[in-house]
Design brief:
six-stranded antiparallel beta sheet, 23 helices, 39% helix, alpha/beta, 22% strand
Length: 581
């Protein structure tokens, strides 16, 4: 049935009675005049009448024979996206979908807005067919396919094309940034990237110049994800990198050598410390930002995902008067977080605690912290040697990198100090052989070490979309799952939902392997036994391996079997868990 006006349609669709429509329309205009967030007229009427947007679109589709589509599974074509600028798409809340026989297909949620329809037709410079989709789907699709800050970047690219020159930032105390100028827009875009990364719980942001584009990737829960960006971003590469270098106190004129810097910002009340690194590549400077929040590092032991038994054993070790407690694992496995939690646990007025770090990530009240500066000779070994004259009870060394540092750390442990440090080894038993490879006498290593904890970080399953997963018995046997537990074992995986960004995971937790020194282990170390032999003895003494600990976390529903295999030297990638459907 055709309607002569939008008013007649709303009455027939039960969005409003005739007298209500006139009053609500007046209220909507008044709200817009006052600057209130009233949305579109259909949204306003739906809200007043208690109808949903889905109800409204269904009535429109039925009355006017318009097609409804879901944008969730629809990927717009590149040709369609190029026909409508990001500015028009953002301003009018539309998404172009495809071009079929010269006709541009465009999704809209407000089909009665004639200004919108005319603007799209004018921008498309050709025939347009409109289809219906919800405003929420259009918003998500816009962010996904046009990218972060698309409107800002398009405007800058247009300005730069008109200037026909390189966009360079101007700096100085007298430089006033006006609303809408190029520098203000660059600042806005960089802020958007950092804000979005923090919102998505990213730990790193990588600006990676390619031959024909500037790629930006986030590391979320240990996995890299590409950020959707507008193609025009490549033209502004130099300006963006210059802006980041200014924020972090680097020399913007130096583009031939790597540089390091630091940015401190506050986002939604959270203090964010950003460590910045640049290196020159063949297509420009690559910039990496490491985002650190005080809340993410200064945690108690109860937040590390340890079992009650493991936490009890570690508390006994870190409250001993002397000896070395080592934490091992690859870069990004949470070693620093564990060390900070240990120091937080034992920090008290009757203990003098000193740390040497590269760099000091966060200041801790009551603890004396020193940052390494290799260019002036302030190395781990140099600082550690002087620590012994400072009457400390507890010493934390950020990392044992060389034989000199190892010798001094062990000397400190054997002369009545409790020492915490880290090593880069794959498992706990290998820490012994790594230290002896650094030319430290085996009997000193055996005597000094109280415990070694290897760790990894696994992604935790999203609680909103976690579902049980059936894994075949043959596969579990293939990956060395304990045969006696197969019959009772249950596993889960994340199906993906809006809460977790369709990743199936939210956050990370640790899996651990704690080796506690014993007389049998000390004898093997003194005899320079291989790491595998030491590992066999440690397991006989009760050590639970990384993978065994991971199985426990998977069966408890905290993570998936795929995650455990991924971080504990899993089999080849083609050996994925087999579902029994």
């Amino acid at each position: 049935m055709a309607y002569t006006s939008f008013r007649d349609f709303c009455v027939a669709a039960q969005l409003a009675k005739a007298d209500q429509y006139d009053q609500w329309r007046s209220d909507w205009f008044a709200g817009r005049a006052d600057g209130a967030e009233v949305g579109t007229l259909p949204e306003f009427l739906c809200k007043r009448s208690g109808k949903t947007e889905d109800d409204f679109l269904s009535r429109v589709a039925e009355a006017y024979d318009w097609q409804r589509i879901g944008l969730g599974d629809t990927e717009p074509s590149k040709e369609a996206l190029l026909r409508i600028s990001s500015k028009i798409a953002s301003q009018h809340r539309v998404v172009p979908i495809s071009v079929e026989e010269g006709v541009l297909l465009v999704a809209v949620s407000d089909p009665f807005n004639t200004d919108l329809l005319n603007a799209v037709r004018f921008a498309a410079k050709g025939p347009v067919r409109f289809v219906l989709s919800s405003s929420e789907e259009i918003e998500k699709s816009y962010e996904k396919y046009y990218g972060v800050g698309a409107e800002t970047i398009d405007e800058l690219a247009e300005d730069q094309a008109e200037d026909d020159g390189d966009l360079e930032l101007m700096f100085g105390d007298e430089k006033e940034i006006a609303e809408g100028d190029q520098e203000a827009s660059i600042i806005k875009f960089v802020n958007q990237v950092i804000f979005l990364a923090q919102k998505n719980r990213a730990t790193d942001i990588h600006f990676e110049p390619q031959e024909d584009e500037l790629q930006i990737r986030h590391r979320i829960d240990g996995i890299l994800h590409i950020m959707p960006l507008p193609p025009a971003l490549k033209k502004l590469q130099a300006a963006l990198i210059s802006r980041i270098k200014v924020m972090s106190g680097m020399n913007i004129a130096e583009k031939r050598l790597p540089q390091d810097g630091r940015i401190n910002v506050r986002i939604s009340g959270n203090e964010i410390d950003i460590r910045v690194s640049t290196v020159p590549t063949v297509y420009g400077e690559s910039v990496s930002l490491r985002l650190l929040t005080r809340a993410s590092v200064l945690k108690g032991m109860d937040s590390l995902g340890m079992t009650a038994v493991l936490e009890k054993d570690i508390r006994e070790v870190i409250t001993k008067p002397h000896g070395i407690m080592l934490v091992t694992g690859p870069t990004g496995s949470g070693k620093s977080t564990s060390l900070y939690s240990f120091l937080n646990t034992i920090n008290s007025n009757d203990k003098r605690i000193m740390t040497v770090e590269d760099p000091v990530e966060y200041e801790m009240r009551g603890i004396n912290q020193v940052s390494v500066k290799n260019d002036i000779g302030r190395t781990f070994a140099h600082v550690l040697r002087h620590f012994l004259r400072q009457d400390p009870d507890v010493i934390m060394v950020g990392e044992i990198r060389d034989g000199e540092t190892a010798h001094i750390a062990i000397q400190a442990a054997n002369t009545g100090h409790l020492v915490f440090s880290t090593l880069h080894t794959n498992d706990a038993p290998s820490a012994y052989t790594r230290l002896t490879d650094m030319k430290v006498e085996p009997f000193l290593v055996a005597d000094a070490i109280e415990a070694i904890m290897a760790q990894r970080l696994v992604r935790t399953l999203c609680p909103e979309c976690r579902v049980e997963q059936q894994v075949s018995k043959d596969y579990l046997l293939k990956v060395d799952f304990p045969p006696t537990q197969i019959s009772q074992a249950k596993f889960w995986h994340g199906a993906g939902c809006e809460a977790c960004g369709d990743r199936g995971y939210q956050g990370r937790t640790g899996i651990y392997e704690l080796l506690i020194s014993s007389e049998d282990l000390q004898e093997l170390v003194i005899k320079k036994a291989a790491a595998s032999v030491i590992g066999t003895q440690a397991r006989a003494d009760g050590m639970v391996s990384l993978r065994e600990y991971g199985w426990g976390q998977a069966m408890a529903g905290k993570t998936s079997i795929e995650e455990v295999l991924r971080v504990t030297q899993a089999p080849d990638s083609d050996d994925a868990p087999q579902e029994n459907f």
